[in-house]
Amino acid sequence: MLREVTTTVRIRLHSLTQRKESLLSREYSTFQTAVQDATSDVNLYSATSQQADKVRSNKNPRTDTMQPVVLRNDCITIEHDEDTVLSDWWFKVPVYDPDRGQGNSIWCPAIVPDKDESLMRDEYLSDSELVYKNGDWYVHLVCTRSVTVNEEYNDVLAVDMGAKWIAVSTFLSDRDAEFHGKRVRDVREHYKQLRKSIGNAKVRQGAQVIQRLGDKESRTVEDALHKTANEIVARARKRNAVIVFGDMTGIRFDSDEGRYVNDKTHKMPFAKMANFLTYKAHLDGRECLPIEEYDTSVTCWRCGSQNTNREVQGRIECHSCGLDDSADKNGASNIGQRAVGKDIESPLSTAGAVVAQPETQIRLEGLDDEIESANSPDDVGLTFSEGSPRVHSWE
């Protein structure tokens, strides 16, 4: 199976002449005017002017923010030339040239990270962005390519996202679980308290704190998300497992648990975590699929009953079968069971991923340490009917 993978590469433009610097600055400032005012009569490169209209209609940007200049993919080019002294890489930026009274393009020397040089091919380039930050010009180059992912797996690694731990991953075969990314919540809480202190500080002191912080919070959180995604993909690789995760789309609109709980959950970067996990899994040649998350946190993974309670936030108790389990681990187990066909409209096999039988029987610990088959129809929810994952009979 082929999946599209998108990578954003940040390249820095350097050693610009005064003319090139002036043309970039003019294009950048004019783009801001065009984005904010639909009636403005400004001169931009024609394709860039069209992109400004799209940004204005789709994003409705705030007047106090600077928008990156969107560069259409058919107007940009990057080339490698080792014979030039100034730079090995050169990037062509479309700009409006007021001296000529028409659109033009300028070639700018660029620095490309070594690890991303293999992506610098015109057929990979998508619409990209020109950004000005701290006195330097950058191009956020979006590269899209197709990768092959496996079609057959030996296990399912289910991921439940939450407020305390950004992700809890659990194998469906033996419920071996790991808890990931508690640092994300800690970082969010730390900067929340800093912002509160800024509000109580004098104006000058608050401004100084804001300047010192910059975008450190977002960079710290993104670093933690990258590490979490890498950990989960590495776990899946060891067992040749397909990755499935609870789809948190719409949680801000569908869930209202009061101001305190909403503040904890609605500010967690679930969508970004899902994007990072999917991207890294596909790069690893592994399928990664969103699964309907609804009711997985209140349903007992073992008996399927919703006669449960969560008196303690991190635990779930089932009054039907006596289960006392980690709530996050329980949610991940339900997501995994849904992925292989239990109470799910689109079983894993319909998306092209097939769970194969392991060489040895996988077993789970049941109630009172009773050992029961992990992949029996009652426990895992396999239907053994057409459209369900391919699981052979046990030896």
Automatic annotation (TrEMBL):
Keyword annotations from UniProtKB, A to Z: DNA-binding, Endonuclease, Hydrolase, Nuclease
Entry keyword DNA-binding: yes
Pfam family, one: Cas12f1-like_TNB
All residue ranges annotated as the Cas12f1-like TNB domain in the record: 270-335
Coiled-coil zones: none
Keyword Cell inner membrane on entry: no
Annotated spans, Disordered: 366-395
InterPro entries, per database record: Cas12f1-like_TNB
GO molecular function: DNA binding; endonuclease activity
Protein name: RNA-guided endonuclease InsQ/TnpB family protein
